[in-house]
Amino acid sequence: MDWFDYSLLATLGVAAGIINMMAGGGSNLILPALMIMGVPPDVANGTNRVGVFLQSVVGIRQFHRAGRMPLGDLPLILLPTLIGSLVGALLAAFAPNSILKPTLLLTMLAMAALMLFRPSIVMPSPDTPPNAMRDTPSAWYWLFLAGVYGGFVQAGVGFVLITALAGSLRYNLVSANALKVVCTLFFTFVALIIFIWQGQVWWIAGLILAAGNMLGAVIGVKIAISVSTRTLKWLLFTMTLAAVVAALFSD
Description:
By secondary structure, the protein is mostly helical. The protein has helices spanning about 5-20, 25-35, 40-65, 75-95, 100-115, 135-150, 155-165, 175-195, 205-225, 230-250. The protein is globular and about 50 Å long. The two termini are about 20 Å apart.
């Protein structure tokens, strides 16, 4: 890599940070770029987690400062997500690279279909009170699966988490987005430890990405809390389709 490549990664990091705070799918910019630059898929997957982790720290702070971070059920929300992420990261560390793309593609197609044909699942009424984790067994299942997917391949996990949080627990999109960032922080930490253990993190590229990701997170949260719920829903749908296209045309 040369200075142009590093500058490109930093720029893509800013864009990914904005996208991830508003909906999800920023890793669909980063993973193909790293692989085009010659980084093996497993190392690209691990390297991307450095920026995602630090971006999540910044995003949580921004949502909390704006008073948009619901904390009541957070410990119970994190439990199945973290267990799933451990399973997913172990699978990713030892699974063949050839299954990463089909997993991403099938998941994103399912999310796009859900948002198109059952939009009420990801956009509950603003007046609907959230369900409690203790009273919603399905939420444990969906958050576990979201954790498995996030631990396995970071790209697109925001869509899966928002669907689980808005669909099962009926959080509005802004609250689901904020909780998504917290979940992402914790399961990315678990996954990153495993990727470091396996020597699958390229630290120079990861830290350059992280600098861009953190700046993008500040910008993205400001946009996410200011746009209408309807706009956020269509943004989510558009980015899901973009994730499908990225998966189709990436090597």
